[in-house]
Amino acid sequence: MVSVSILQTQKLHKHFNGVNAVDHLSLRIEKGKVTGIVGPNGSGKTTLVNLLTGMVPSDSGAVLVSEMKLSRIRPYDVRTYGMTRTFQQVRLFQQMSVLDNVLVVLTERGVFLSLFEYHTNFHLRQAKVVLEQVGLWDKRNENAENLSYGQRKLLEIARALAMGSDTMLLDEPFAGLFPSMKKTVAGIVQKLRSEGKTVVLIEHDMEIIKHLSDHLIVLDAGKLLAEGKSHEVLSRKEVIEAYLGE
Ligand SMILES: Nc1ncnc2c1ncn2[C@@H]1O[C@H](COP(=O)(O)OP(=O)(O)O)[C@@H](O)[C@H]1O
Ligand SMILES: [Mg+2]
């Protein structure tokens, strides 16, 4: 089967105060695969996701979505390109209920209006599906601010699922989760893959990466250190020595 790049960067570059966060980086994300991105703290993983989703503008280089070169990506256009991301630092509407946090995404209305407008049964059913997937349906009437850290991360994932995007960029979705929650998130990643969706998974835990990702990208100081099939990359001596601390 011919591999198709759903996302691609060409010499993508971003510096902050003299630090090259992403350094002339060229890579491809294959459609329908789970691509893991690993690398030490500060190696540019989050910045890469920010660049791919227009959260920060690049200094130079290009991003291609489905082979289409984009001169500039704006955060509000990202959904049109079929992409959704989650944040390393969770972003929710703290004063709203768990259910409303999902309904806002489903109905695409502003926060204020969606509090007062009638939601159709259709939207409620969709919200139920994603909240059950992350195990938060029973918590639907709680305010987001009353959830535990792990539950808030799961709610953010539920919101991302509600978008129904073809490509999901998950920035450390497992970090700080209890084992049972990790299992839930792993199941979600596998389900997305089985539905033919593309997942970009930033993760530190190599067992999780080995278990879930087809393809692996290793970053170091904003540059590509290694890439290829996960099991193959993880067995390379320089990767083991430099990044896995083994
Ligand atoms: N908004 C920002 N302002 C200044 N420096 C930043 C900003 N975002 C990231 N950086 C810097 O860019 C480098 C890469 O950071 P980041 O992309 O967060 O790495 P990672 O996600 O791999 O830990 C780090 O040196 C970090 O301090
Ligand atoms: Mg990060």
Q: Summary?
A:
The protein has 246 residues and is α/β, with parallel strands linked by helices. The chain contains nine helices and ten strands. The protein has a single domain (34-55, 82-244), classed as P-loop containing nucleotide triphosphate hydrolases (Rossmann fold, 3-Layer(aba) Sandwich), CATH 3.40.50.300.
How would you describe this structure to a colleague?
It is built from 9 helices and 10 strands. The relative contact order is 0.18. Strand 1 and strand 2 form a beta hairpin. The strands form 2 sheets. A 6-stranded mixed sheet has the order 6-7-8-3-9-10, sandwiched between helices. With 246 residues, the protein is an alpha/beta fold. It is globular, with a radius of gyration of 18 Å. The chain binds adenosine-5'-diphosphate (ADP) and magnesium ion (MG). Magnesium ion is lined by residues 45-46, 88.
List keywords for this structure.
246 residues; alpha/beta; Rossmann fold; six-stranded mixed sheet; four-stranded antiparallel sheet; 26% strand; binds adenosine-5'-diphosphate; binds magnesium ion
Set out the fold topology.
Blueprint: E1 5-16, E2 19-30, E3 34-38, H1 45-52, E4 60-65, E5 68-70, E6 83-86, H2 98-107, H3 111-116, H4 121-133, H5 149-162, E7 167-171, H6 179-194, E8 198-202, H7 206-212, E9 215-220, E10 223-229, H8 230-233, H9 237-244
Helix pairs in contact: 2-4, 2-5, 4-5
Bound molecules: adenosine-5'-diphosphate (ADP) and magnesium ion.
Residues 16, 19, 21, 39, 41-47 line the site of adenosine-5'-diphosphate.
Structural class comes to alpha/beta
Radius of gyration: 18 Å
Which second-level CATH architecture applies?
Answer: 3-Layer(aba) Sandwich
Number of domains: 1
Terminal Cα span: 35 Å
Number of helices: 9
CATH class wording: Alpha Beta
The percent of residues in helical segments reads: 25-40%
The ordered H/E elements are: EEEHEEEHHHHEHEHEEHH
Strand content: 25-35%
Question: What is the average of the pLDDT values?
Answer: 90
Instruction: Count every beta strand, where a strand is a DSSP E run of 2 or more residues.
Output: 10
What topology, given as strand order, has the largest sheet? Answer: 6-7-8-3-9-10
Please name the fourth-level CATH homologous superfamily. P-loop containing nucleotide triphosphate hydrolases
Shape: globular
